[in-house]
Request: fold
Amino acid sequence: MQVTGRRAWDRMRSLRAPFGAAAVLAGAVTYLAVVDPHEPGHYPVCPLYWLTGLYCPGCGALRAVHDLAHADLAGAARMNLLFVFCVPVVITLWARWTLRSWQGRPVRASLAHPAYLWGLLAIVIVFGVIRNTPFGHFLAP
Reply:
C-alpha cells in the first residue's frame, strides 16, 4: 500500500513542470483575452516594425492570441497565419511532455533533430520575407 501511494505522489510531482507551464500560458492568454491588443496603446509596438516599417514573423501574434481566445479562427489567421499553424504543434508537444512525465519516462533534453530546427527557421524566414512583399500582403497583420 505504501509503494502505491509513493508512486502516485511521484507521478503527481512529475507533472508540476508541464502543468506549471500550462498555468503560466493560461494566465498570459487570459490577460490577452481581456486587454485587447487591437486597440493601440495597450502593448508596445514591434521594434522591427517601429524601426523599419517591416513586419517580423511574429507581428500580429498577440492579436492572433486574442482572436483565438474569443474563438475567432479567421481573425487569428488574418493576424498571423504562421502562429495559428504553430498552435496545434505546441499543444501536441505539451501533451507529449505531460504524458512522458506521467509515465515516468525521461523527457529528452534536445528539442528536435537539427534538420527540423533548420527547416523551421527557413519557414519563419520565408514567412517574414513574403509577408513584406506586394504579392504577400495578405499575410501582413
The CA atoms of residues 8 and 102 lie 10 Å apart. The helical segments are 2-14, 16-34, 47-52, 61-69, 73-79, 81-103, 114-130. The chain has a mean pLDDT of 89. The longest helix spans residues 81-103.
